[in-house]
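User: Structure please.
Assistant: Input sequence and predicted structure:
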Amino acid sequence: MTVKVAKTTSPHTAALESLSVWQTRLGWLSLVFVLVGLGMAFFYAPTEATMGDVYRLFFFHMPAAIAGFAGFFVTFVASIAYLVERSAERDMWAVAGAETGIVFSLAGILGGMFWARPVWNVWWTWDARLTSVTIMMLTYIAYMMLRQAIDDPERRARFAAVMGIVGFVNIPLVWFSTRWIDRTIHPVLFGGESAETAQGDLALTQSMEITLMVCMVAVLLLFAYFLVRRARLEMARAELARLREEGGTP
């Protein structure tokens, strides 16, 4: 007599398959747009009159910072969803958003430092936006440390969700810092004029604006690729843990 062993269906199987497809699509799209963006940043956009060629870092510095905001927004939304639904998958998206947001925020900060050194002769200045972005990034690094400090999965997800929501308060502070603080090296490019005492005014020509938009799309596609990749990794880990508990083999 043959005994058939019923196989339990993983709650993450469909999601893993879907994310695998999206990861491939986003990978190719981001590669194309990044190459086009690099070409436009170096060969299409004109040299800036005051800062010279070093300003070309701006085309990826600003999009990287916005991608960092996007990552923390994903954490914010996923954390709220987790507290409402108590779904482990929502917690996976929250941690994926935080990690990806930290990486892109760090890239934005480093890009700004390499830009600032030849222009303002400093690697670091206690500028309102620079400082607030750094505090925001450190908040989510603390979020990741909190997750590492708690062993129980449900308790870890619950505490992290609360911190992920509270940490999002930093986002409007960062965004409006150039409007609220008089002295800043960061110009207001969208939604208003720069502060009168700003040292960082950057008048964009039409070709600069087009290049910035292409680079913005490129970086956001790259962000989406890493976000999906990280969420897929988290789900794969959960699936591996489930198989081990059931005595199966991955």
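Residues 15-46+55-235 form one domain.
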